Amino acid sequence: MQTKRTIFSNKGLPYLLLAPQLAVTIIFFIWPAAQAIKSSFEREDPFGLRTTFIWFDNYTRLFADPTYLNAFGRTLIFAVGVTFISMAIALLMAVAVNRLLRTGKIYTTLLVWPYAVAPVVAGILWWFMFNPSIGILPYVLGQFGINWNHRIVGNHAMILVIIAAAWKQISYNFLFFLAGLQSIPASLNEAAAIDGAGPFKRFWTIVFPLLSPTTFFLLIINVNYAMFDTFGVIDGTTSGGPNQATNILVYKVYADGFLGLNIGSSAAQSVILMLIVIGLVFVQFRYVERRVQY
Amino acid sequence: MVENRPWLNVATHLILIIGVAIVVFPVYIAFIASTQAPGTFYRSITPLLPGPSMIDNYWEMLTTGMSTAGAPPLWLMLINSTWMAIIITVGKISISIISAYAIVYFKFPFRTFAFWIIFITLMLPVEVRIIPTFAVVSDLGLLNSYVGLTLPLIASATATFLFRQFFLTVPDELMEAARVDGAGPIKFFKDILLPLSRTNIAALSVIMFIYGWVQYLWPLLVTTDSRYYTVVMGIKRLAARGDTEPQWNLIMAAVILAMLPPVLVVIFMQRLFVKGLVETEK
After folding, report:
1. Could you tell me which CATH class the domain A77-288 is placed in?
2. Considering the entire predicted model, what is its pTM?
3. 3-class DSSP state for residue A44?
4. Which residues of chain B have a CB within 8 Å of the CB of A258?
5. Do B96 and A22 touch (CB under 8 A)?
6. B28 within domain boundaries
7. What is the pLDDT of residues B256-267, one digit of tens each?
């Protein structure tokens, strides 16, 4: 691992400097994770008196459980929806801002602040807008003959949480797309323009391909966001309902373990989620870290 | 711009105005709702123009709160959130900067191992280890305390990596010169490295403050005593009431107040915010 040409020769000091970080990491991260792995192989009796080692029973039960498989499917729809919507809108905004010279700054300021809105607050904002009896959007939708009710219709609830989660993430994607666009040399665009390529052709044949490292990076980050950081969006609005329609994996871990007190199953779900995060982090660092610099 | 296309310029502004409208609209509606008189939401859909009760609503939420929802007054939750965000910011930056210093400027057995342990935190977000982490905090007797709210969240791989990257770009000659002049590791860190890191620390503080402020799941787990509620988690208790007792004017006042501090930080420290965001997420 990289270090300095000359270094300090103290023996004890570096350990002392690392101690706080390592202590917090071991006590609050690694130890609990190890506990989760351990209890994912165990079953606790209803009174919490005895635990028995049951190998992969918790896992096989999970994958035989239709509600868990349903949660997988729902998570997939949710993650794809959030990622696609927020990235598409953000890219459009970034391309537009990148065309402007002076006014771009104002638009940027107006677009970036939702980053600071908590996911649960974003959820509640849209929950209110979509409120079937007093919300504005169901009223508008009613004019088109759509009878909106996310408390009963599963797909409506899913659309609601996707919009809320995507809305919050636009600002983040926008900033990274804008940074990516600004690092593409203007000369490429100018050369193509001289050769007679119009703005749309230039975008799809030059700008978009050159932007692909940013796009790929954001893809990973957004999937990660949709899978883990959106707990608040779900908990603040639908609580996984109606009828499991928005019960995404990260919410199910919480609901089964903390509300349902099914420790073994919840631990097994935790471990599966850990594997997913490890996969995402691996992809991010293996393939994305060397982001192309133009 | 490459060539002058008036129609495309018009379209650009049009797209951006629509985009900004989409981004701003929910908050505008929330603000409008927060100014309505009590009882507005028994009758009709949300109005589009401000009502007469803005000051009353905000004052009521700040000083007494919504007693039916079992939540304390908002000022208390705002103070809790502020403390939580500040402690997390200072804690994360302090422990990350010294561990990055140890990793870059010293050679010792298990250095790479320590680096990997810190790296692992990236792979274990709190959402995937809810119950065992809760058990640890509860065994340590840290439920319902600021320590319990903040300490488990202050390990940070991203901040450590950022400082490590930055330290690697600091010229070696600085350290050699400091050593020739007889400065030890502590003095070098305090008088040279720390001042050089000022911008990075500031940029990171903005990101970490927001991170601390928007925490939801963790405060939800470790606080049962309403004196320690943070505003972001307290809001859910209010919203759960909104469906049975339509006091949306009060709830939305709370929502606006909960959003305001971090949003203002982003708007007024936009340059640092962008720097912090782009650099931590590399």
Report:
1. mainly alpha
2. 0.91
3. strand
4. 130-131, 134, 221
5. no
6. no
7. 999 999 999 999
Count: domains in chain B: 1
What is the predicted ipTM? 0.90
Asked whether residue B194 carries a pLDDT value surpassing 90, the answer given is yes
**Contact predicate A270/B130, CB 8 Å:** yes
CA distance B2 to chain A (A): 6
- Indicate the pLDDT class of residue A176, thresholds 50, 70 and 90: very high
- Report yes or no on B16 lying in a domain: no
Note the pLDDT tens digit of each residue in B216-269.
999 988 988 888 889 998 888 777 765 666 688 888 899 999 999 999 999 999
Q: Which chain B residues are closer than 8 Å to A39 by Cβ?
A: 132
Distance (Å, whole) CA B193 – CA B189: 5
**Residue B101: CATH number of its domain:** 1.10.3720.10
Tell me what pLDDT residue B43 has.
66
Residue span of the structural domain in which B211 resides: 34-280
Q: Choosing among A9, A25, A189, which should be mutated to test the B contact, i.e. which has the most B CBs within 10 A?
A: A25
3-class secondary-structure state, position B74: helix
CB contacts < 8 A (A, B): 310
Domain assignment of residue B18, yes or no? no
Is B220 domain-assigned?
A: yes
Query: Which H, E and C letters describe A190-232, residue by residue?
Result: HHHHHCCCCHHHHHHHHHHHHCHHHHHHHHHHHHHHHHHHCHH
- Mutate which: B5, B78, B130, B250, vs A, most A CBs within 10 A: B130
